Amino acid sequence: MIGTSQEQHLRNQSLHQRRRGILGNTLEAQKKRFGLIFALPAFFFFGAFYLYPLFQTFYVSLFSWGLLDAPRFLGMANYSRLFTDREFINSVWVSFVYAFGVVVPIWFIALGLALIFNRPFPGRQAYLTVYYIPAVISLTVWSLIWLLMYNPTFGLFSVAARAVGITGLRMLDDPSTAMPAMIILSIWKGTPVYMVIFIAGLRAIPTDYYEAAQIDGANAWQRLLYITLPLLRPVFLYVMVISIIEAFKVFTPMYILTNGGPGSATRVLSMFIFQNGFQYLKMGYASAASVIFLLILLALAIVQFRLLRFQQND
Amino acid sequence: MKMRIYTTLVLSLILALLISACALPAAAPTEGGVTSGAPTIEMLYMTHNHAPSIPVNEAIIAEFEASHPNVKITFDNAPHANFEQKVLTAFAGGQGPDVFWAGDWMVPQFLASGIIAPVDPTAFGVATQEEFEALFEPGSLDAFKADGKIYTGGISEYNTFSLIYNVDALVEAGIEPLPKDRPITWEELADIAARLTVKEGDVITRIGLAWPFTVPIWTVLIQEPMLRQKGGELITPEGMPDFTQEPMVAVMTYLQQLRKAEAIDPATYTDLLQDFANGRSAMIFGGPWAVAPLKTMNPDLNWDIAPLPQFADAVERVTTLYAWAWFVSAKSSPEKQKAAWEFVNLLTSKQREWWEKVGYVQARKTEIDGMPLREYYAQTDPRLATIFADYAYGKFEFRSTKYFELSDIWTRAQDRVLSGEDVMSVLMDAQAQAEAAMAD
Fold it and tell me: Which domain does B138 fall in, by range?
């Protein structure tokens, strides 16, 4: 009983301290206060540069506003117009095609390369450096390089295609090949970044597991299937979330290589928003498209986080 | 307790953000102007960053500041591609320039937004707008007029397009150099361009004719004269775009035929002047600005200039006209506007510098070395005389506050037509998009 009473007392004391929270004079409260003070700049940064624009975007989406004139309240009219705008619907579709066309191959190529580079072999660092170069080149420069690469007369890509018997390739000029052209250059550019993340994930797996499995007679394929891949799940899901969001945000290659064309074959959602907002001065309409864009990304992120939670519980 | 405090903090922040986010400027704020008694007038001058123009602008600023000690000019230049967006967003943020460059196609948007001020003729030493207009080449200020007023202090870059061609390529193909005194027809051009295209196997090593196919303003500059030659206008008298009119169908069909004949090929295009200078294209469209760079890029290239082609059944001879001009902000204080117009007067008085150092043709009349301006320009390169003859038939681009949207729609339609899609169905789509754009 005495013990129980003491425990109860301590519990009450702890509860009391917790209730005093950051306002008390305890060491814990002081630490929390400092923590809060240190967190405040980030908190305000997040508020000013993320939350504020978010609310502002939604608010502007309810208006017809040309930047230079007085805003006119429309309610949800911009949203209803968007869903009948064939160019907008095309942009959403194009964004999905691009995003999944890029990220799915990236996941597997990056993982494959990470598995290769996770093992020691002669010249590994040199190869790793070469493979990582595209990641450090600016996307603008990268796009300009590929603009020349795709030239049907002298571009390296076209020359290589001809060397393997593929003739008459007009990557950027043909609506059926313009999007694959964008996907190829983006896979090349994005893979090294995710490869490095996978390598970091692989190195975090304790070697004991592999040693134990080897003693138990597991072959390389079984070790990959039953140790590496399950333990890489969190990293894989992180890569999935980030890569999909990044892919949806794409703008530069389309802006430089095709300006969204031919026709609207590569007019992704971010380009649709940019053109409507800053070229056509339809800020309300562009904001409504941005809100839809955000909701799409949010839905994808929620699905992925649910998957992550499910996998972790599993 | 802790949770409550955190919750309160977060909710307060969100509330504050919501309240502040729900604030839209009623309109672009008005410049407060110079405070009374301020010793100096500070002006912002904004241009795009065409490299040769920067030192010329800087020299003229220095000269103006020396003669106007009470004026301080801040010079800002931005990349050409996004310059217009920068100007507009600067105005939207209340930080608009006092003097700035912009293209003639921006005028309807500027007027609708009340951004630009009508010219003050007294700054140019004349009393009326009519006298001011007489200082310039006839018709050169047409795109800048509204309600009987002129909304520019002059043109910084006055342009038309003519046909620039590789003489040796024509001779090799057994074609006589093109006449200078009359335009060939578009139909003749199609035949010549197809013959000038050179292929190795299925690879085009030289294309007959090229222009920047994905740049919307080029779509307008190339196709609008064609449309007008056929008797069409993009914008009807009622102010609505008409993409399905017969002349537009004819122009698009013509372009599709050019593509089918491999006289043009958007896939081979990299850079207008570089491609031409390096022999990757045999003919291009260009203005006076092309002459100096071409001579530098390939001094050995044998090229010449012909008038802009006309359709065989053209109802009238039409070429294109476009211009960049100096504008003064209507948002600036009267003191600043007065100083700004005087500054623009100086800028437009430097015809020799703009031509010799930048390659920009000026529209303000003058005599240099005892010669009228055009004559002076032409004596620097006799080929220019052909381009200058094309100015006489020039018409400025269509005027609409939806210029960018309509030119994008036009370009997307062109893309699809060049890809082989049915002309009429493409144009019907374009029409639907244009009507939606206008309804906004």
Answer: 41-158+322-388
Distance of residue A278 Cα from the nearest chain B Cα, in angstroms: 6
Residues B403 and B351 grouped into a single domain = no
Task: Give me the CATH number covering residue B338.
Answer: 3.40.190.10
The DSSP letter of residue B185 is: B
Q: Which residue of A has its CA nearest to B401?
A: A280
Residues B406, B352 share a domain: no
List all residues 6 or more positions away from A293 whose beta carbon is below 8 Å from its beta carbon: A248, A269, A270, A273
Tens of each residue's pLDDT in chain A, 314 residues: 445 566 666 666 655 655 556 677 788 888 888 888 888 999 888 888 888 999 999 999 999 998 888 889 999 999 999 999 999 999 999 999 999 999 999 999 999 999 999 888 899 889 999 989 999 999 999 999 999 999 988 899 988 988 888 888 888 988 899 999 999 999 999 999 999 999 999 999 999 999 999 899 989 899 999 999 999 988 988 899 899 999 999 999 999 999 898 989 999 999 999 999 988 989 999 999 999 999 999 998 888 778 777 666 65
Does B10 map to a domain?
Answer: no
Whether residue B395 lies within 8 A of chain A, CB to CB, comes out as no
User: Within 10 A of B247 (CB to CB), how many other CB atoms are there?
Assistant: 19
B21 touches chain A (CB under 8 A): yes
Q: For residue B20, is it within any domain?
A: no
Structural domain includes residue B13:
no
Residues in chain A closer than 8 A to B411 (CB atoms): 259, 261
Strands B41-48 and B162-166: unpaired
Asked which of B356, B371, B388 is the last residue of a domain, the reply is B388
Of A22, A87, A152, the CB nearest to B2: A22
Judged by CB atoms closer than 8 Å, whether chains meet at A278 and B405 is answered as no
Interface contact A19-B1, CB threshold 8 A: yes
Cβ B67 vs Cβ B58: under 8 Å: no
Same domain, B292 and B204: yes
Which residues share a beta bridge with B319? B394
On the question of a cis peptide bond just before residue B121, with omega within 30 degrees of 0, the verdict is no
Beta carbons within 8 Å of B235's beta carbon, 6+ residues apart = B241, B242, B398, B399, B400
Look at chain B and report how many structural domains it folds into. Answer: 2
What is the C-alpha to C-alpha distance for residues A268 and A272, in angstroms, rounded to an integer? Answer: 6
Q: Are B334 and B409 within one domain?
A: no
